[in-house]
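tool_call: predict_structure(chain=1)
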Amino acid sequence: MYPRSLIFALSPETAHNLAINALHYLGKIATGHPFPAPPVTVMGLNFPNRVGLAAGLDKNGEAIDGLATLGFGFLEIGTITPRPQPGNPKPRLFRLPEVEGIINRMGFNNQGVDALIENVKAARYRGILGINIGKNFDTPIEKAAEDYLICLDKAYAVASYITVNISSPNTKNLRQLQGASELDALLGALKARQTALADQQSRYVPLALKIAPDLDEGQIIEIADALRRHRIDAVIATNTTLARDAVAQLPHGHEAGGLSGAPLFEKSTTIVRILANALRSEIPIIAAGGITNAETAKAKLDAGAALVQLYSGLIYRGPTLVKECVRATLYSIKTDH
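tool_result:
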């Protein structure tokens, strides 16, 4: 049984750190397998089920083997930056239990890409592993591409796919990279480097772009056009939101940062629908944001996603959410990509 009351008696970041430590040690004594489901091919990769872990839970790849015991079809770790950084001042993580929401302003706290690579190499896990990359907080936005290229170079050999995170609200000016000209330049540089690395290593590692939910339809269509133009392999919709409509009157509802969990569901699912209509199955969509039960997982797939990712829902529901969502995907009307 998931000990939610015990976990919620601790501060959110203390509980998070304890969970990572517990999963780290679990991975040393136990092995896991994905919950059975018809496999699906996305980005040219064969996923044993459609339900994955979103980036942010295991930023440094410290608990890969433990997370693998929970039945996920794939794992995504990070966000990682070229150099270690502490992130934003504490407190920076807040629960909103009345609505099953979380606000965070972590700020890409991580041990740096080299430490993550060593953790990946030490893990026994051989399933699909995504590595989520970002820029250091003190790298000027006009030089952001350099940070992404450093991480891409280092992560390429050990990743199944790599996610380019330009949508966290907690790194100053980062979302600027979603603008048309900035995005075009960044994706062009990343695609050229991906092509070169694929030639050098005789192995193609797909690239996914993670976008924000706080975009209008015109911006989403522009992003879809850029993804198509640069032949990016997938899009993850979405990161956390800055909107506070549903939580402003709640304790901690005013805290700065990105809101995730159930309050994000409708906004992020709308983004999936718009992307699906714009992309017309040319590029697969990975849906994240507000998946807290079987129904919300299925709704993401029915909206046009090929895969789903969990994070905040795990905090409120525990590991049984993974199996519940895998079962739900068996009955989705989703057409495979």
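agent: The first strand starts at residue 40 and ends at 42. Proceeding to next step.
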